Amino acid sequence: MRRFTLELGTIAAATLLALTVGPAGPAQATAPTKAAANTAYFNLRDVQGANFTILLNDAAKIKEAREIVADGLHKIVVGRIVKRTASYNPQWEFHLNPDTVTFADMAIEVCDATIRYTNDHLDEAGGPFLPGLYWCPWTGRLTAEVPAP
Questions:
Q1: With a threshold of 0.85, does the pTM exceed it?
Q2: What CA–CA distances, in Å, run from 11 to 4, 148, 149?
Q3: 11-45: per-residue pLDDT in tens?
Q4: How far apart are CA 72 and CA 86, in angstroms?
Q5: Dihedral through CA 143, CA 74, CA 126, CA 98, nearest 10?
Q6: Contact 53, 43 (CB under 8 A)
Q7: Contact indicator for 55, 41 with CB cutoff of 8 Å
Q8: Contacting residues for 51 by C-beta, under 8 A, at least 6 apart
Q9: How far apart are CA 140 and CA 52, in angstroms?
Q10: DSSP readout, 128-146?
Q11: Phi/psi class of residue 72: alpha, beta or left (left: φ > 0; alpha: ψ in -120 to 50)?
Q12: How far apart are the C-alpha atoms of 7 and 1, rounded to whole Å?
């Protein structure tokens, strides 16, 4: 009964998260879908001092990220992780699918984890840990736009 309850809770959390952030698109689609002029990279720093690079390829999202950095706003980055290293984030074994990145004022706890914890527990992501592969590091802050690698 406990296992059934855990599985049911995981399904409910994933459904709630999907409804919160909207459609995600394919989890493994990471190639930029817009022209290169609409590509920008941003640094995300968490409470442990770890840095993570986020690729954005949508003009509206790039504009929003630039405003967040310029105004020092606290917005939570929400996106779906891809379990493989990206060329612009070589120190981590995962990256965010740029088509799924959004910015939120609040997010549910089930998608919260630090950068290092996410990397160290990547094999568990997609189940009870980070259901649906959604990640929303509450302590993460966009600190700067960074040059393309």
A1: no
A2: 11, 37, 38
A3: 444 444 444 444 444 333 334 434 456 899 999 99
A4: 27
A5: -50
A6: yes
A7: yes
A8: 43, 44, 45, 115, 143
A9: 9
A10: TEEETTEE--TT-EEEEEE
A11: left
A12: 10
Provide the token pair at 81: 């992780």
Nearest to 44 by CA among 120, 149, 148, 136: 136
Tell me the pLDDT tens digit for each residue of 113-146: 999 999 999 999 999 999 999 999 998 999 999 9
Phi, psi for 143 (deg, rounded to 5): -105, -25
Contact between residue 134 and residue 21 where contact means Cβ atoms under 8 Å apart: yes
The answer to whether the beta carbons of residues 92 and 119 sit under 8 Å apart is yes
Q: What six digits make up the tokens of 118?
A: 């996410």
Place of tokens 């992780």: 81
End-to-end CA distance of the chain, in Å? 50
Instruction: Please name every residue paired with 144 in a beta bridge, in sequence order, or none if there are none.
Output: 43
DSSP code for 91: T
Q: What is the pLDDT of residue 36?
A: 56
